[in-house]
Amino acid sequence: MSYNDFTLSKVRKVFNLTISDTIDIFASIPEIETSSLLVETLRENLPLALASNTEKSRS
Predict the structure, then answer these.
(1) Which of 29, 26, 55, 58 is nearest to 42 (CA)?
(2) pLDDT at 1 (0 to 100)
(3) Which band of pLDDT confidence, cut at 50, 70 and 90, is reported for residue 32?
(4) pLDDT at position 58, please?
(5) pTM of the entire structure?
(6) What single DSSP character describes residue 16?
(7) How many CB atoms lie within 10 A of CB 16?
(8) Band of residue 3 on the pLDDT scale cut at 50, 70, 90
(9) What's the Cα-to-Cα distance from 43 to each of 11, 16, 26, 47, 52, rounded to whole Å?
(10) What is the Cα–Cα distance from 55 to 57, expressed in whole angstroms?
């Protein structure tokens, strides 16, 4: 299916999908403490990623 032909309703029919709009899907998952390595990595790299203003850098 080409991108121009893509619609949610077509995909639902072709793959027999059910769409579920669940709020608070992760509400029952307990929070965990963030590792110090992740915190430091984000502290160092996040300002540069946001400043370059591209989708790839933000991801």
Answers:
(1) 58
(2) 64
(3) very high
(4) 66
(5) 0.44
(6) T
(7) 6
(8) confident
(9) 40, 43, 26, 8, 16
(10) 6
